[in-house]
Amino acid sequence: MKIGRNDKCWCGSGKKFKRCHYGRENETPVSKGEAIGHSQKNASRKYCYAPADLKHECSQKIINAHTVSKSSSLKEIADESNHVLGLKINFANIARNKGKLIPEKIGINQASTFKGFCSKHDKSLFSCIEDREFIGDDEQCLALMYRSVAKEIYAKEGGLNTSDFAKNSDKGKNILDQMFIQKFAANHETGTKAALTELSELKSQLDNQLLGKSVDSLSHLIIHSTSPMPVAVSSVVSPITDFDGNLIQDLGNLSLVAEHLVFNSFSSDGKGYVVFSWLKTSTKVLSFINSLLALEENKIFSSLIRFFFGLAENTFISPVWWNGLSSEQKDKINSLIMSGVSPFVHNDRNLLVDDGISFSGWKVGSLRRINF
């Protein structure tokens, strides 16, 4: 491959070759310290994701907002030292664990936090789920959904920053490695931008509902139990397959608009809840939910465990529950956590299908369908 010094660089940056990748193989490689510094800076970004119409009310003091309630849910499953088990997803930790994500102790003050709301809006938007018992009314379900979507947008915006950083990580590499890194970063950036566009549209619809500009656009499934839920989670996914292994939607086709499912697992007043939420128009997500509802009731908890750990990262575990698991059960969860981590391994269509490894510790008490 021969490129003139003044030609556009092959990497697609739009810069001239001489100001971009010319001599890149001789540059000093990105250090571990630089990578850790980027990871820490990226995780410290501050922004308030309240609706634009409410921005004039911002207190300007961005706080560590909990995506899973500390006062009820995290305290309910924490050990005597007020710690839960969760994933510490940062470059330093991943490097220390040699690329593996493993459950580790996290204090409940740090678990599930992100700098995504000012103190004013964190209080006004989410006091309905933080300060009173969960009853599953429209206000509480919307608040759960809104906070999860804001956290996911925060994560995706951080992902774009990481793509930019990754493009410079080919310094000191040979030309073939440079091309591989640039292609990987470009593909990651394309996928992240598509997801961010879709999530921003979803948030816009939630903004309208929050401000009273639209009604009856959301559907919810509430699974209730009389005992606390040992696994707390708050996340957003676009399900690819259902609990029978059937294809739901092909996320590899960027011309199609992905449908999103928001889910929260938590405890409130000593009871346990799992809340699924989606746009009423999302028929593919409804198909996914129906595959869950078709399961035998005594298999739902095990199916939820596969779903939580196979598709979500913002997941927190009761140390007592974890310590009571067998080696086989722990190995299963660890393998679920690593599913989808490597971009070079195809998604397992049977990820959510019952493989005979079951889990106990939580029984379904009731199922409540709302607006579907």
TrEMBL record:
InterPro entries noted in UniProt: SEC_C_motif (IPR004027)
Protein's recorded name: SEC-C motif protein
Organism: Psychrobacter cryohalolentis (strain ATCC BAA-1226 / DSM 17306 / VKM B-2378 / K5)
